């Protein structure tokens, strides 16, 4: 990260692009009594007959208050998946650049890399599911643009050691993306407070997990104003729809409810760990800093199929590196968790 210069990382065509200027971009000082005949909308009321705010100002303002950042450090997308895709398109030249991922981890990083014709350098986590810092840093080359750190990591459920993460941010020459989809369940602090310290740091979060809004698709990217401006330039003009913006704002103003649910999930997690430890088919329970638990069982394929037969769908991770015979359980309601425990106890 020495002599960090964002301009060296942006793709040339993106640097030269002139963004589409939507009607709502060109005139935004809207007041209710004005006549809007600039966007070819249907004038009759449906609640959503108007195009949504392309900058999602209200949602960003609220998020900025909650997270202690500036609204200009936020980009919103149609789920984290769109946010991550924008990062590839802004910084990775197809058939030339590469990104680094640390398996076992979230599958979308390599899917998006393939989709964008970008190479993936994979450096497996160590036996404690921690990043191998020196191996990662020595594997980078001048075309390494993004390093994905998922913390807490999916599917392993642990958060990465903070000093290792810091070494990676300091030693990587491209942009470090910390995926904090599960941060609200974590005992570790978010990296958001370090945004101003590290110009190459990008943090993604989502309303899909702790906030209980997977169905509305709202992903969030926090980064420097410079990085956010690049992403803003290339995002589809109306990428976050009106219904999503309304629902997000509503939820972000009832944080007590969200906190209550998160606390209940955390209590259930603790209980579930205790109960799982007494079940014979379970051989290991990995520590969880998220809303799911990774366990090693005697035979993952067998147990997975048996659970399906009993109407319980879990995630079979046995084909993932370091995850042989591992299943991933999302923490459910008290009743759902009881059903899981009861069913696991009946397996033979
Ligand atoms: C679930 C998850 C997300 C969320 O993706 P959305 O597109 O925002 O729903 C992001 N990253 C990780 C690691 C996840 O497990």
Automatic annotation (TrEMBL):
One BP annotation, GO: L-histidine biosynthetic process
EC number(s) per entry: 2.6.1.9
Molecular function terms from GO: histidinol-phosphate transaminase activity; pyridoxal phosphate binding
Keyword Iron-sulfur recorded: no
Entry keyword annotation includes Transferase: yes
Domain Aminotransferase class I/classII large as annotated: residue spans: 45-343
Xref: PROSITE patterns: AA_TRANSFER_CLASS_2
SUPFAM superfamilies xref list: PLP-dependent transferases
Transmembrane annotation, as ranges: none
Catalysed reaction, written as an equation: L-histidinol phosphate + 2-oxoglutarate = 3-(imidazol-4-yl)-2-oxopropyl phosphate + L-glutamate
Cofactor field: pyridoxal 5'-phosphate
Keyword annotations of the record: Amino-acid biosynthesis, Aminotransferase, Histidine biosynthesis, Pyridoxal phosphate, Transferase
Positions carrying N6-(pyridoxal phosphate)lysine: 209
InterPro entries: Aminotrans_II_pyridoxalP_BS, Aminotransferase_I/II_large, HisP_aminotrans, PyrdxlP-dep_Trfase, PyrdxlP-dep_Trfase_major, PyrdxlP-dep_Trfase_small
CDD domains cross-referenced by the UniProt entry: AAT_like
Pathway where this protein functions: Lipid metabolism; Amino-acid biosynthesis; L-histidine biosynthesis; L-histidine from 5-phospho-alpha-D-ribose 1-diphosphate: step 7/9
Subunit structure: Homodimer.
Record-stated family: Belongs to the class-II pyridoxal-phosphate-dependent aminotransferase family. Histidinol-phosphate aminotransferase subfamily.
HAMAP family: HisC_aminotrans_2 (MF_01023)
Protein name: Histidinol-phosphate aminotransferase
Organism: Winogradskyella ouciana
Phylogenetic placement of the source organism: Bacteria, Pseudomonadati, Bacteroidota, Flavobacteriia, Flavobacteriales
């Amino acid at each position: 990260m020495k002599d960090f210069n964002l301009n060296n990382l942006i793709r040339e065509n993106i640097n030269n692009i002139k963004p589409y200027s939507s009607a709502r971009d060109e005139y935004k000082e809207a007041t209710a009594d004005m006549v809007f005949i600039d966007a070819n909308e249907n004038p009759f009321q449906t609640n959503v007959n108007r195009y949504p705010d392309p900058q999602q100002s209200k949602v960003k303002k609220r998020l900025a208050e909650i997270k202690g950042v500036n609204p200009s450090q936020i980009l919103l997308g149609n789920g984290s998946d769109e946010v991550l895709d924008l990062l590839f398109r802004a910084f990775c030249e197809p058939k030339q650049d590469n990104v680094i991922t640390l398996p076992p981890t979230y599958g979308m990083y390599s899917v998006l890399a393939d989709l964008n014709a970008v190479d993936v350098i994979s450096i497996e986590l160590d036996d404690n599911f921690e990043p191998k810092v020196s191996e990662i840093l020595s594997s980078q080359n001048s075309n390494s643009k993004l390093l994905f750190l998922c913390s807490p990591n999916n599917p392993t459920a642990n958060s990465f050691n903070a000093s290792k993460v810091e070494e990676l941010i300091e030693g990587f020459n491209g942009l470090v993306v910390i995926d904090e989809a599960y941060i609200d369940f974590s005992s570790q602090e978010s990296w958001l407070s370090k945004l101003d310290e590290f110009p190459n740091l990008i943090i993604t979060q989502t309303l899909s997990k702790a906030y209980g809004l997977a169905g509305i698709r709202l992903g969030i990217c926090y980064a420097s104003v410079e990085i956010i401006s690049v992403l803003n330039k290339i995002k589809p003009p109306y990428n976050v729809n009106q219904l999503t913006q309304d629902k997000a704002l509503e939820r972000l103003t009832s944080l007590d409810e969200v906190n209550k649910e998160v606390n209940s999930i955390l209590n259930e997690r603790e209980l579930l760990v205790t109960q799982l430890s007494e079940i014979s088919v379970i051989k290991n329970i990995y520590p969880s800093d998220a809303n799911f638990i990774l366990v090693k069982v005697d035979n993952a394929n067998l147990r997975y199929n048996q659970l399906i037969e009993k109407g319980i769908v879990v995630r079979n991770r046995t084909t993932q590196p370091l995850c042989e015979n591992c299943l991933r359980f999302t923490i459910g309601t008290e009743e759902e968790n009881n059903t899981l425990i009861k069913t696991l106890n009946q397996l033979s």
